Amino acid sequence: ILDRSGTKKTLSTGWESAQGIAWSSSGEEIWFTATQAGSARALYAVTVSGRQRSVATTPSGMTLQDISRDGRVLFVESNARLGFLGLLPGETKERDLSGLEWSYGPILSEDGKTAVFTEQGEAGGAGYSVYLRKMDGSAPVRLGEGYALALSPDGKWVLTCLIRSTPTQIVLLPTGAGEPKTFPKDEIEHAGGRFGTFLPDGKRILFVGHEPGRPSRVFVQDVAGGAAKPVTPEGVVARLLSADGKSVVTRTLEQGFAITPLEGGPSHQIPDLKSGDMPLRFTTDGRFLFLRSDAREFPARVFRLDVANGRREVWKELMPGDPAGVTLLSPAAISGDGKTVLFIYARSLSDLYLAEGLK
Fold first, then answer.
1. What is the C-alpha to C-alpha distance for residues 37 and 39, in angstroms, rounded to an integer?
2. Cβ–Cβ contacts within 10 Å for residue 55, how many?
3. I need a surface site. Which of 45, 48, 176, 287 has the fewest CB within 10 A?
4. How far apart are CA 150 and CA 196, in angstroms?
């Protein structure tokens, strides 16, 4: 709260999500909707002296809109969901392959038969959860806590970032029986969600991170252990690994997208990539690059770009069978042969309520 003399006082803090705020009808409290974890906000009240209490909760979460002079409360109860759809080989209708209510960042195996993703919603927990899902229709399986970055070439491990550690650290979660593999703790802050992958031999990983007070760059680390080593200059981060594992796709404000060798040497700009493009995967032979354009474009389209001459073509496109409430639809992952594509979507359906008698 800010008074007329400019004095600012924090009345309530520690919320992961806080939306909606209004003075109570008496003017003695400020009512707001917030949650300490996840997205299911509840209605709280706090006095100008900082005394806080709970007012009301609903199953799907609330967003306060307004409070009338006679104490009636206007709020929205939203059913917001983030998930992903799969367009599988030989099929013309998409499948919803989401896990729970907020399934983010699906990663597809080279053969397109397995996906891993991060569950960020209420059920995912404060540190998120990593899930594995087969394309055969079986239920997703929780592997452990963290944010999924990559699936190993042999399908046995998931590279995961632990967002609740300080600094953030990476760990390997087994997709079957076994214990997680940890790495020696260091000072590198791992940029969870930005980039992480296995090299083709499965014995080394690449990830984006930064040392204290330094710009981000790409590091390589042996799965067996040892210290991480930088492989790109500071300020140069990766978006994608090449099919042969010898180069990464990087992006800078000056050069745009370029292919940068990991062993050193000059970068080569990728022709005809636009500012809104996002590389998804190289074809298995490395000749073509699959990419997406604007994330809010309908229908969502995957393009195939010839790396040598910059010629592009529409490879796959999708318009959801039920577009109601869909605010985002974008290709997120594709198999090496281009036959399996995963599309993320965001859907928000809301109901408006008028509540009486809340005190």
1. 7
2. 19
3. 176
4. 6
Cβ–Cβ under 8 Å, residues 104 and 117: yes
Dist. CA 248–CA 315, nearest whole Å: 23
- Cis amide linkage into residue 59, ω under 30° from 0: no
What's this model's pTM, rounded to 2 decimal places? 0.78
pLDDT, tens digit (0-9, with 9 covering 90-100), for 260-296: 898 878 888 887 777 778 899 999 999 999 998 766 6
Q: Could you tell me the maximum CA-CA distance found in the chain, to the nearest angstrom?
A: 71
Q: What is the SS3 assignment for 155?
A: coil
Nearest alpha carbon to residue 86 among 283, 320, 291:
320
Please state, in angstroms and as integers, the Cα–Cα distance from residue 134 to each residue in 51, 151, 209, 251, following that order: 49, 13, 30, 32
d(CA 18, CA 1) in angstroms, rounded, equals: 15
Distance separating alpha carbons of residues 31 and 48, to the nearest angstrom: 11
Do residues 268 and 279 make contact, with C-beta atoms less than 8 angstroms apart?
Answer: no
Q: Can you tell me the mean pLDDT for 121-137? A: 89
